Each structure stands twice: as C-alpha cells, then as structure tokens.
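Example 9 (inverse folding). The structure is encoded as follows.
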C-alpha cells in the first residue's frame, strides 16, 4: 500500500524528511481494532514534533499522522460499535503507526462516526483538536457544556486562529462564555470572529490594557494554546480568583506556581489527548463519545469544520509543505489533504 514516512529525523527542507513509500498493508484487525481505508488526513504540530531532527534511524520506516477520516474495511472480533462500510473520523494513538497510509489499524474506542454533512477532508480537520479542546474544557476543567452557569463569564484564548483555538472558540461559546481570542493579523482576526469569538485582541500587545478597553477587568478562564512561559505571569494577573488556566504546550523552563496562582486558588489544567491511548486508561471510550457528540453537533449546524487550506493529495511533497507551514507558525485553522494519486 502507499504511505508517507521516514527513516531518519531530518529538517523539513531535506527531501528525505518525509518520503513516499510502498509498504505491506496492516493485515487482519484483532481485538477492538478497526481496519480503516484512509481517505483524508490533517496535519498538526504533534506531527512536526514527532519528526523533529534527532540522531535516530527507523527500520522499517515510521509512518506519522494523527488526524484522519475514512471508511471501515474490516473489524476485529471484539468490535461492537462499527461495521465494514462505516464512515469514521479519529485522531488515533501516537504510540502506533499513523494515518499517513492508505490503511490503518485504530482502536474503536478512539473513533467516531464521520459527520454526514462534511466531506472526508472537512472531517479529517477535526478529531485531534476537538478532543483536545473538549477534554481540556469539559473534563480537565470543571466546566459544563450543556448548562447556562457560564453566561456572563469571560474566557480568553491565546492563539485563537490555530487548530485547537478554532474549535475551542466554538465549544466555549456554545457553553455560554463570551470568548476573547488573540490574533495578530487581519486574516487571523477575521478567522477568529468567523469561528464565533466575541472579541479579538492582539497577543503581541499588552493584554490587560486591551481587555480593560473592552470593559473586562478579569477573565474566569484562560486557555494558553501558544506559549506557556511567555504568558504565565500575565495570565496569573488576568485570571479572576478561583479561575482556571488550561495548557497544552510544554514549558521551556520551570513555572512559578506560587502567588498569584496560589493566592487566587487558580486551577492549573494540562491536556494531552493521547494520554488515554498511551496509558490504556479505563475510560478510553470517552474519545469515541466526544467525537460522536461533536459529529451530532456539526450535523445540527451548531459546530463547523476548522479546515482552512487544502494542500492536495496525500503524498510526501504535500506533507512536507504542511510541516513547513506549521513550523513557520502562520497556519490558520487546519491544513488538510485528501486522496491518493
């Protein structure tokens, strides 16, 4: 089968960083695995981090990719939720071969039925970021998706135009928050407003003054999706007592978690959506439930895809371009690829 993978960990400018491959198909699924024929994929910063240059060789080649939509070809003997022919979407498991291949095994507990109103590329943009934002907001934090207790509260998202920010804006707004997103360019500002942000401020300028200009003295919740270290002290000042901060980016150095965080009893919440699969937690099925709920919300018109740029078919050259753009740091929403030439 066709696939894109690596044997060395190289800078993305090197044509050998990602290569077109012909590898053996996965074979018959076992246990709770589905065999999925991949129709479309999306690319995330985790792909670039997994590919980052280091002195290591891979034999056989390693296949990356952690956002996909496709069709179930076969199911393992313990599968209960899916059958051959079902259209699905998922992020998968970072400890197993990824979705940059024509066929992939994936545990059914990590998979949802594809939204019927989206094509495969539009659906592939969503799983990793939707799981990240949903788990962070409604499982790591004591927030609630379906009630009105957040009405009148403010939620700040640093990095609103990125993949996680784009869906987090929608989820937080649905939960009743007034969302303030940060963006520094006209096109990213427009994207955040399109996703449903109530206000957009510039993260390159002091945040407190911009919030004060909007009549907002403090925020109840902040998601730092961009630079944990840079905004740490600022968010400690901006968060209201008993507020919450959500983090997804590993800090470069130690974080001081004393005052004002201690004095205000601010909750600090980490999210890594691969944790459930990596550690085979007893609640892995939660990811199936989240993706299924999200699909229903999308089909009802309450959420929308975050796909922004289609880079063509799934091949090494197009995936290298996706990695290059992500590493440059100017991607809006999600980059998607679909079909095999």
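The amino acid assigned to each position is listed next.
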């Amino acid at each position: 089968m066709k696939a894109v993978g690596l044997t060395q960990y190289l800078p993305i400018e090197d044509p050998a960083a990602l290569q077109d491959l012909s590898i053996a198909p996965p074979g018959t699924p076992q246990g709770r695995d589905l065999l999925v024929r991949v129709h479309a994929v999306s690319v995330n910063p985790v792909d670039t981090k997994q590919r980052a240059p280091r002195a290591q060789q891979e034999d056989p080649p390693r296949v990356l990719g952690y956002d996909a939509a496709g069709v179930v070809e076969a199911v393992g003997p313990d599968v209960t939720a899916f059958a051959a022919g079902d259209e699905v979407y998922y992020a998968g498991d970072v400890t197993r071969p990824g979705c940059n291949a024509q066929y992939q095994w994936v545990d059914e507990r990590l998979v949802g039925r594809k939204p019927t109103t989206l094509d495969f590329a539009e659906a592939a943009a969503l799983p990793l970021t939707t799981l990240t934002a949903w788990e962070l907001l409604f499982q790591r934090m004591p927030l609630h998706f379906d009630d009105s207790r957040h009405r009148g509260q403010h939620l700040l998202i640093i990095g609103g135009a990125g993949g996680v920010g784009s869906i987090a804006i929608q989820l937080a707004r649905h939960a009743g928050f007034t969302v303030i997103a940060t963006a520094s360019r006209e096109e990213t500002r427009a994207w955040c407003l399109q996703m449903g942000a109530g206000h957009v401020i510039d993260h390159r300028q002091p945040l407190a003054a911009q919030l004060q200009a909007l009549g907002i003295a403090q925020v109840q919740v902040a998601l730092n999706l961009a630079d944990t270290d840079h905004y740490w002290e600022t968010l400690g000042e901006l968060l209201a007592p008993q507020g919450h901060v959500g983090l997804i980016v590993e800090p470069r150095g130690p974080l001081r978690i004393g005052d004002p965080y201690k004095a205000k009893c601010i909750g600090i919440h980490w999210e890594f959506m691969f944790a459930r699969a990596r550690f085979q937690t007893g609640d892995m099925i939660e990811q199936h439930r989240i993706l299924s709920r999200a699909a229903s919300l999308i089909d009802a018109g309450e959420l929308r895809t975050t796909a922004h740029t289609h880079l063509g078919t799934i091949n090494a050259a197009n995936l290298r371009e996706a990695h290059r753009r992500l590493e440059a740091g100017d991607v809006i929403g999600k980059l998607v690829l679909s079909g095999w030439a």
